[in-house]
Structure formats: structure tokens, C-alpha cells
UniProtKB/TrEMBL annotation:
<dbReference type="GO" id="GO:0006412">
    <property type="term" value="P:translation"/>
</dbReference>
<dbReference type="Pfam" id="PF00572">
    <property type="entry name" value="Ribosomal_L13"/>
</dbReference>
<comment type="similarity">
    <text>Belongs to the universal ribosomal protein uL13 family.</text>
</comment>
<keyword id="KW-0687">Ribonucleoprotein</keyword>
<comment type="subunit">
    <text>Part of the 50S ribosomal subunit.</text>
</comment>
<dbReference type="GO" id="GO:0017148">
    <property type="term" value="P:negative regulation of translation"/>
</dbReference>
<keyword id="KW-0689">Ribosomal protein</keyword>
<dbReference type="GO" id="GO:0003735">
    <property type="term" value="F:structural constituent of ribosome"/>
</dbReference>
<dbReference type="GO" id="GO:0003729">
    <property type="term" value="F:mRNA binding"/>
</dbReference>
<dbReference type="InterPro" id="IPR036899">
    <property type="entry name" value="Ribosomal_uL13_sf"/>
</dbReference>
<dbReference type="InterPro" id="IPR023563">
    <property type="entry name" value="Ribosomal_uL13_CS"/>
</dbReference>
<protein>
    <recommendedName>
        <fullName>Large ribosomal subunit protein uL13</fullName>
    </recommendedName>
</protein>
<dbReference type="InterPro" id="IPR005822">
    <property type="entry name" value="Ribosomal_uL13"/>
</dbReference>
<dbReference type="GO" id="GO:0022625">
    <property type="term" value="C:cytosolic large ribosomal subunit"/>
</dbReference>
<comment type="function">
    <text>This protein is one of the early assembly proteins of the 50S ribosomal subunit, although it is not seen to bind rRNA by itself. It is important during the early stages of 50S assembly.</text>
</comment>
<dbReference type="InterPro" id="IPR005823">
    <property type="entry name" value="Ribosomal_uL13_bac-type"/>
</dbReference>
Amino acid sequence: MKTIFVKPQEIERKWFIIDAAGQPLGRVAVKAADILRGKTKALYTPHQEVGDYVIVVNASDASMSGKKRSDKMYYRHSGYLGGLKSENYEKLVARKPTAPMEKAIKGMLPKGTLGNKLFSNVKVYAGADHPHAAQQPIKIEM
């Protein structure tokens, strides 16, 4: 079996839109990460950027099962001693509505320069409006 090498000019990129309203946050993130990686294409190569662009709308309306809205914690560190900050899902959504979806998608992408490049191909919006109508995105049903 030979490794597929695809030239960047030969890759056909499409735009997809996912409506996260009422959908579980993790399931939306998995679908977005698969499309970003290019795992839905026959030309998938793990070390190349062959994926498509993804728009996630209504990210603040994604659902969480059980008591995760109040119990799930998000952590960040300032870099200084004692600089660990934590907040739960409800407070994070109130402060920055797109952050939980962005963190979930970024955590499912590879680490390093490839993951950073792939993450720049996802656009997350808290509401239903987005400025990418000119790209004619294809709606993904969940």
C-alpha cells in the first residue's frame, strides 16, 4: 500500500454549515473535526491539510446532558504561580458564547502546526447569522 500525496492545488475545498441548536456539543465537535481533517474524503492523508471549511452556527445553544452545565469545568493558567483559573460551562458561555465549542473542536484536532492550520478553517458563531453566504455552504444534517 502506498501513501497518497496530494498537491495543494489539486484539493477541492467545500464549505459546510452545521446548526448546533439542540444538538449535543460533543457530537457537533466530532462532525466538525472529521470534516476539517478530511476524513470524509477518499484522499485523506494524516499529515496533509486535505479537509474542508466548516461553519458552526448557534454554538451557544448546544445541549449538554445531565448536570454538565453546572459541573463541567474549564481551566486556564496565566503562567504565574497560583495562576490557575477555573469556571464552569454556564459562566464560560455567559462570558464567551463560542468558547466551549471552539475548545471541543480544537481538542479533537492534531497538536502542532497542522492542528493550528486546520483550526483556522473552522468558523464558530453564537447566533444563526454568519458572513459566509457567498461561499454557498452545504448544510450538514445531524
